[in-house]
Amino acid sequence: MGLLDSLLQRDGRKFIKRKDSDAGEAGRALEELRGSIYNELRTSEGAKRQQQRFCGPVVAMTFNFLVSVGIILTNKFVMGQVGFNFPIFLTLIHYSVAWILLALFKALSLLPVSPPSKTTPFSSLFALGVVMSFATGLANTSLKHNSVGFYQMIKIAVTPTIVLAEFILFSKTISCKKVLALVVVSAGVAVATVTDLEFNLFGACIAIAWIVPSAINKILWSNLQQHANWTALALMWKTTPVTVFFLLALMPWLDPPGVLLFKWNINNSSTILISALLGFLLQWSGALALGATSATSHVVLGQFKTCVILLGGYVLFNSDPGFVSICGAVTALCGMTVYTSLNLQKSLEGPSKQLPKQNVSLPKPKTTTEGGGTDSIAVTDVTNTTNIV
User: Fold this and answer.
1) Would residue 121 count as lying in a domain?
2) Which of 106, 176, 194, 198 is geometrically suited to a Cys-Cys bond with 111, CB 3.0 to 4.6 A?
3) pTM, full prediction
4) How many angstroms separate the CA atoms of 9 and 226, rounded?
5) Do 109 and 191 form a contact (C-beta atoms < 8 A)?
6) What is the rounded (10 degree) CA torsion for 98, 101, 107, 110?
7) Closest CA to 42 of 112, 104, 105, 107
C-alpha cells in the first residue's frame, strides 16, 4: 500500500503540474491576445484597419444613404411643421451635439487614436474644418432659398469640380469610360429635376458659392483617411471645433433675424435634438463613405439618392413627376450602374496584374556550383515575390 500511495502521489503531482502548466500557457496566450487587440485599437494604423475591416464600401455607402434619407425628412419637418427657419443655427446645433458626443466617446476611451501630429499638419485639419463649415452651412441655406430641383441641378456641378480639383491637387485622372458614365448620370439627374427650377438671385449666388467648398470638403475627407491613417471619428474630433467656430461667424450673415424669439418647448426641442443626432450620424456615415470610396463616388451616391426618392414617390405614393423626369431618373441609374461596375472592375484588375509574377517557371538546377548558386537566388526571388503578392 505504501508503494501504491507513493505512485499515486507522484502521478497526482505530475497531473497537477501539467494542469498548472496548461493553465499558465492558456493565461499567457489570453494576455497576449488581449494585448494585441489593445495595441491594435490604440494605434492609428490599427484603428484604420479595424474601420476598413468592419465598414467596407458597401456598408459605408448603405449607412450613408439610409441616414441621408432620414435627415432629409426630419429637417423638412423641422423647417416646415416646427417652423425653425434658421439653417445655419440648425447646422450649428448639429455640430455642437456631435462635438459633445465625441467628447463623451473620448472620456470613455472609445474614440480611435489620431495619427501623430507630425504626419498631418495642423493647417490641413484647420482648412478641412473651415471648408466643412462653409460646405454644410451654404448647402442648408441654398436648400432654404431655392427649390429642390435647382438645388439638385447645382449639385451636378460638384462632379466636374471634384474631377478638376483632384487633377490640379493630386494629378489624378479618370478613364474616358468613367467620364462618359458621369456625363450620363449628370444628364439624367438634370432631366429628372428640370421641372422644378424656382430660384431667386440670392439663392442662386449661395448655391454657386457652395460648389467649390463642397468639392474640396469631400476631397480632403477622402484623402486624409486613405493616405494619412485617419479614421472617421478621429478626424471628426479634430475638425468639429473649427467648424463650430466658423458656423458661429456665418450665422449673423446668412440666418434671418429672430432666432432669439423662437419659442422652445418639449416637442420642438425633441424634434431638433433628433435632427441633431441624425446630423451626427450623417457626418459619420459620410466620412466613412469618403474613406472607403472616393469623393466622386460619394457625389454619385447623392445623385442616386435623388433618383431613388423620385422613383420611390412615383411607385409608392402615386406622385406624378412626369414621364420626362422618370426617364431622366432611369437614365441616371443606368449611368450609375456603369460607373459602379467600372470601379469594381478596376479594383479587381489591381491584384490580377500581379498574378504573372507568381507563374514564373523555375529554371532547372545546374550541376556546377556557380549555376546552383544562381538557381538558389532565382528561387528565393520568386518565393519572396509570391509572399509579397
Assistant:
1) yes
2) 106
3) 0.72
4) 63
5) no
6) -90
7) 112
* Residue 295 domain flag: yes
Instruction: Please work out, in degrees rounded to the nearest 5, the angle formed at the alpha carbon of residue 122 by the alpha carbons of 120 and 128.
Output: 90
Residue 81 — very low, low, confident or very high, per pLDDT cuts 50/70/90? confident
Residue 297 has pLDDT above 60, yes or no: yes
Sorted by sequence, the CB contacts under 8 Å of residue 307 that are 6+ apart come out as: 188, 189, 192, 329, 330, 332, 333, 336
Instruction: List b or e across 198-220, with b for residues whose CB sees 16 or more CB atoms inside 10 angstroms.
Output: ebeeebeebbeebbbbbbbbbbb
State how far the Cα of 153 lies from the Cα of 180, in Å rounded to an integer: 18
Which amino acid does the sequence have at 119?
T
Structural domain boundaries enclosing 174? 57-346
Length reported for the chain: 389
Q: Which residue has the cell 432629409?
A: 72
Number of domains comprising the chain = 1
35 in a structural domain: no
Confidence of residue 28 (pLDDT cuts 50, 70, 90): low
Has residue 81 been placed in a domain? yes
Which amino acid belongs to residue 334? C
Single out the residue of 275, 286, 278, 272 nearest to residue 233, CA to CA.
Answer: 286
d(CA 278, CA 75): 10
The radius of gyration of the chain's CA atoms, rounded to the nearest angstrom, is 29
Q: Are 160 and 301 in contact (CB under 8 A)?
A: no
Burial code (b: 16+ CB inside 10 Å, e: under 16) for 144-178 equals: bbbbbbbbbbbbbbbbbbbbebbeeeeebebeeeb
